[in-house]
Design brief:
This protein is α/β, with parallel strands linked by helices and 187 residues long. Helices cover 32% and strands 21% of the residues. The chain is built from 6 helices and 6 strands. It has helices spanning 41-51, 77-92, 109-120, 135-141, 154-158, 173-181, and strands at 2-4, 10-16, 25-31, 55-59, 97-107, 124-130. A hairpin with a 5-residue loop joins β1 and β2. α2 (77-92) packs across α3. The longest helix has 16 residues, at 77-92. It is globular, with a radius of gyration of 17 Å. The two termini are 30 Å apart. The relative contact order is 0.17.
């Protein structure tokens, strides 16, 4: 499905819903990593959270994926934040969504965009981020805060310079806290 943001850019979304939907459900908007699309990480999070009882919406940000906007593949921080508010507009039109129980999950770069959106859009009642890189700081202060090419090699992690993290299945504890804030128990 698709809808337009306030800038007139068409956003293409995947909407997921729980198998058993009773009354008005809690909802989550899931934003993808920088350069990603809804069929990747954000779609997996959205699908998992739908299995846990949420109506979820994963979208391609403006200028990316199937969504509109020209030129293609650019970074427009203000537009990306607007995309989250437009997603709230979209969810709010669904009769099966509790408009006062909409939250957001921002994955990677969308972590910053979702925080900005929650800061200016009071309709977003909960926010969770899954992010390891401060993209906003990198834009403000320069790329000097990004890992150097040699730091991104697997040997760096294997040598113990970066802590190893266990692989996890499904949303992190941060996402679970977001889920709790909008009123659902994660198992």
């Amino acid at each position: 499905m698709s809808f337009r943001n306030r800038l007139g850019i068409e956003l293409v979304v995947d909407l997921y819903s729980p198998k058993r939907l009773r009354g008005r459900a809690r909802a989550l908007i899931v934003g993808h990593p920088f350069g990603g699309v809804k069929e990747q990480t954000s779609g997996l999070y959205a699908q998992t959270m739908a299995e846990r009882g949420f109506v979820t919406l994963a979208f391609d940000a403006s200028y990316n994926g199937e969504s509109g906007g020209r030129p293609r593949h650019i970074a427009s921080l203000e537009t990306f934040v607007e995309d989250f508010s437009a997603a709230v507009d979209c969810l709010g039109t669904r009769r099966y969504v509790a408009r006062d129980r909409i939250g957001v999950i921002g994955v990677c770069a969308s972590g910053g965009f979702s925080l900005s959106a929650a800061q200016i859009d009071p309709r977003l009642k909960a926010v969770a981020t899954v992010s390891m890189y401060d993209m906003g700081r990198a834009y403000r202060d320069g790329q000097g805060y990004a890992p150097a090419p040699g730091e991104r090699t697997p040997s760096r992690s294997a040598s113990g310079l970066w802590p190893r993290r266990p692989r996890s299945v499904g949303p992190s504890s941060t996402v679970a806290r977001c889920a709790t804030a909008v009123g659902v128990r994660c198992r």
